[in-house]
Design a protein that fits this description.
Helix content is about 35%, strand content about 25%. The protein has 4 helices and 5 strands; from the N terminus they run βααβββαβα. Strand 2 and strand 3 (about 60-75) form a beta hairpin. The longest helix is centred in the C-terminal third of the chain and has 15 residues, at about 100-110.
Length: about 150
Amino acid sequence: MNRSKVKIRQATAKDVDLAVPLFDAYRQFYRQPPAPERARRFLLDRLTNKDSEILLAFFDSTPIGFTQLYPSFSSVRMARIFILNDLFVVPDARRSGAASALLHAAAEHARDLGAVRLALSTEVTNTAAQSLYEKSGWKRDSEFHHYQLFLDQ
C-alpha cells in the first residue's frame, strides 16, 4: 500500500456506514462481540450530538482506519483537551502509514479546535501501539497514576 495514497478526513453523520465496520472491528480487537447495529447507533449519536470528533483514513476510496476524539477540559490549564479514545487500522492496511497519519491529523484537528493536549490509554500488552505512539512524539505519563471505577458491574 502506497503511504502517499492514505488520506484522512473528518467524518460526518453521512459517513456513519463507512465507520461502522471499522468501529465494530476495533471493539472485537478488544474482545467484544460483534454488534454492528449498536455500533451504528452509538456512532450516529456521537456524530449527531457532536459528542466526539471522528477522523477516517482512506486508501483510494476504501476506509481503512479511524480515530475518535472525545472533548474534555484541563482545569489546571483552563483549556480544552481531547481524549484519543479509539484508534484502529484494518490488518491489511497496517504499516501503510495510516495510523501515523491518523495521529498527526488528530493532533492538527485538536490544535485547530484550541486544545492544549491529547491524552490516550492503551493496554499494557499493546506494544505495537506503544511503539507507534512513542515514535509519533507521545510521552508516557510518569507523574500520575490513572484509576478507574467501573459502574456497570
